[in-house]
Amino acid sequence: MLGNPRTILLLLAPVAILAGAVGLIVASPWQHFGRSYVARIELPDAGRKIGLPKVEGPQDASRPLIVIDPGHGGHDPGASGSAFREKDVVLGLAKALRDELVQQGGVRVALTRGDDRFLALEERRQIAKVLGADLFLSIHADSAGEEAGIGGASLYTLSAKASDQAAARLASRENRADQINGISLEGQSDAVSAILVDLSQRHTKESSLQFARLIAREGEGVLKFLRTPHRSAAFVVLKSPDVPSVLFEVGYITNPDDAARLASDEGRRSFAKAIARAVRVYFARTAG
Questions:
Q1: How many Å apart are CA 93 and CA 276, to the nearest integer?
Q2: pLDDT tens digit string along 51-104?
Q3: Rounded-to-integer distance, Cα 85 and Cα 255, Å
Q4: Handedness of CA 15, 20, 21, 22 (dihedral sign)
Q5: In terms of C-beta distances under 8 Å and separation of at least 24 residues, what long-range contacts does 166-170 make, across chains too?
Q6: According to DSSP H, which parts of 132-229 are helical?
Q7: 116 burial class (0-12, 13-18, 19+ CB within 10 angstroms)?
Q8: Which domains does the chain have, with CATH numbers?
C-alpha cells in the first residue's frame, strides 16, 4: 500500500538521486578524465557597437572602397564537407582577394572579419554602410547535402522575390533603410520615402547585376560555374539600398573537387586574380 513507509521510500529515492545530480551539475562542471562536460558560450552584448575593420590600401577617401565579407565564422561554421568547413575556406579566399587588390593598388579594401569570429548578418551589411563602401562582396560556399557530385559557383543579387525555391529558403525578410545615398528618410512623407528608396534600389540593383556579370566574365575558364550562375534572392547582406552588393557562392563545400580547389594555394590565387579584375573593371566603368 502507498501508506507503507518502505513503499514511500522506494518511490522517493529516484527523485532524490536525480535532484542531487542536477544540483551537483549546476553547482560546478563535472570533470571526468580531465574533460569538462559543461558548455559555456559567451553571447555578444546586445547593445554593443559594431567594431569597424581596418581599411587597407591607399589612405585616400576618393579611392573606391570594396568591403569583402567572408561568410559565417566563430560558432557558426557554415556548411561542412570533404573535411573542409565553409567559414575557413571563404576566409582564405577573402584574404587572398584583399591582398591581390592591395598589391595592385588604387583600391581601398576592408574585410568584415579577418579572423574566426561571428558576425550577425545585419552587422555585415552595416559595416559596409558605415564605412561608405562603393561595393560589397559576400563570399560563401554552397552545400548539396548528400549529393556530393554537384559543383560550381553561383552569383546572387537582390530580388524582392526569390528566383527559385532554393534561393527562397536562404532569403530573409526585407528591412527598410533609414537613409538613402546620404539623404535621411526621417521626417519625409511615406510617398517621398518610397520614391527615394525605389530610385536608389533600382540603380543599386542594376549596378549589382553589372558586377555579377563581370565576375562571371572574368572568371570564365578560371572558375567553375553552374550552367545558370546568376540567381536572385532577398538575402539580408544584399539589402543595402545604396551599396551595390553581390553574394558569391564560390562552389560546393560538399563537392570534393570544389572544396579542395578552393582551399588550395593555387585555387585562392586564381580566384583572387579573376575577381580582382572584375572589381577593377567595375570601378573603372562607374568612375567613367
A1: 12
A2: 899 999 999 999 999 999 999 999 999 999 878 999 999 999 999 999 999 999
A3: 12
A4: positive
A5: 167/231, 167/232, 167/233, 168/233, 170/233, 170/235
A6: 165-170, 190-219
A7: middle
A8: 65-287 (3.40.630.40)
